[in-house]
Specification:
Strand order of the largest sheet: 5-6-7-3-8-9
Strand content: 15-25%
Distance between the termini: 78 Å
Number of strands: 13
Shape: elongated
Order of helices and strands: EEEHEEHHHEHEHEEHEHEEHEH
Number of helices: 10
Amino acid sequence: MIEAVGLTKRYGAKTAVYNLSFQVRPGVVTGFLGPNGSGKSTTMRMILGLDRPTAGHVTIGGHPFRQLPNAPRQVGALLDAKAVHGGRSARSHLLSLAQLAGIPAQRVDEVLGVVGLQDVARRRSKGFSLGMGQRLGIAAALLGDPQVLLFDEPVNGLDPEGILWVRNLMKKLAAEGRTVFVSSHLMSEMALTADHLIVIGRGQLLADMSVTDFISANSADFARVRTPEAEPAQREKLTAALMEAGGQVLSEPDGALRVTGLPLPRISDLAHGADVRLWELSPHQASLEEAYMRMTQGAVDYRSTDDRLAHLQPPLQPGHPGYGMPPQQQPVVQDVPQQGWYAPPPPGQNPYAGAPGQAPAPYAPPAAVPPGAPQPSPSQPSDTPKDAR
């Protein structure tokens, strides 16, 4: 079991983790969620003794990681799949780790088979794809057959078959009574893999509960109700009956009704009592992604803004209608092609196109300018279209 008590980590004036306390129990897959910059990687590094807490402590099986005897046989971790010497083969990399931990060499071939890299075991890792690197990192975590496993984004770069394999592997390890702690940004995958969630934001604990409880606590379940579209009077009659019974009714853009505060059987009974036919009566439960977004919306550090491609536009010159005005207040002005650019004229205004139904006139080169005659100015366009010159 992993236990953190009052865990705090500061880097100068920045506080990455503050007063964080939680437990990761064996026998279940525990998901570790949070926005970018929320302190997940820092927390995992402190669990593994790679960073020292500024305050508080974290233990594995009742002992700090640095005090565990032969830690690789008790704790396996994947934090950075790229932390491999590119000149080493997959087998050589795992063999060096096994020798340092006193693990038999035959175990190397076993884990290579578990992660599916047995056919490329002697290839240099610098030629591995992102997904192959993830598999090699998972193999290193499994090398000592540990009871505690930590994975940071283990499905990053994997194809659908690889993602399914990782999901089944996590569940299998937890079913064996191991402690499995997984960090991921893929909400749909975490909903299928994790049994329990620990959610942090800006270094502080936001939630520590089961996946089911987390979704229920951070979403509003509702019933979706639809009446015949050609009979708006029935829709109004049903709305009145539902609100009189204590329900809250909202109209959706597609004409359906969103009803909260009433169970589905009660809604059906009210519709029957009001003599209203229903075309749809279905429950809606929020996904883990919806619940997560609602929980963490106030803890996101990096938000997108409206991109008007301002960095690609030349600065406005004096005389332009929007000169000196903020970008959001600048009027939209039809761009005029700069000299040296050709823009086709609007339909019906092309002097080089024939009348409707006629073939275009053949191109005739301009007459030569006699010697001594004034040459056309470069700033004045000639009678020949630019794309024909």
